[in-house]
Amino acid sequence: MRIAVGADHAGYALKERIAARLRKAGHDIVDCGCHSEESVDYPEFGAAVGRAVAGGECERGILVCGTGIGIGMAANKVPGIRAASVHDRFTAEMSRRHNDANVLCLGARVMDAKHAEEVAEFWLGLPFDGGRHERRVGKINALD
Ligand code: RB5
Question: Is the pTM of this model over 0.70?
């Protein structure tokens, strides 16, 4: 799968770990930055990943900031993006099965790095359940 990844300075190290793990698993990674722990503004990277996914360059996106909140807020401003800030396997699973999330947002300051890597790989393999959730996701999309 072609996946856009992005992070701010707080999420940089975890973004690198996740990208390395996903490359090893055979995914094609498009790195939208940032590229160091020098302080940057998370909305730029949320928007870059959002545009890569909404524009069709990538099938999914993965974002990391300190909490996973701000960078996801920025990504959700891009029409077509359903970015979900998750904390564990359960919220990751629901974000795919019920919400058809196309961008995963993780908090490097709230999750153990190893756990976050596992959650990211797990999320990529999960389907959207469709059915009654189609109507609800359609109503989200209609807000764009
Ligand atoms: C940066 O210090 C921090 O505010 C950012 O990484 C993120 O947590 C924002 O939501």
Answer: yes
pLDDT 10s digits, 61-116? 999 999 999 999 999 999 999 999 999 999 999 999 999 999 999 999 999 999 99
Query: Is residue 128 within 8 Å of residue 138, measured between CB atoms?
Result: no
Is 98 in the active site?
A: yes
Residues 133 and 128: their CA atoms lie apart, in Å, by 8
pLDDT tens-digit series, residues 18-31: 999 999 999 999 99
Rounded to whole angstroms, the Cα distance separating 17 from 84 reads: 20
pLDDT of residue 99: 98
Is any atom of ligand 1 closer than 6 Å to the C-beta of 8?
yes
Q: Which residues of 83-102 are buried (b: 16+ CB within 10 A; e: fewer)?
A: bbbbbeeeebeebbebbbbb
In the set 35, 65, 87, 133, the catalytic residue is 65
Tell me the fold of 2-142. Ribose 5-phosphate Isomerase B; Chain: A, (3.40.1400)
Per-domain residue ranges of the chain: 2-142
Distance 131 CA to ligand 1 centre (A): 36
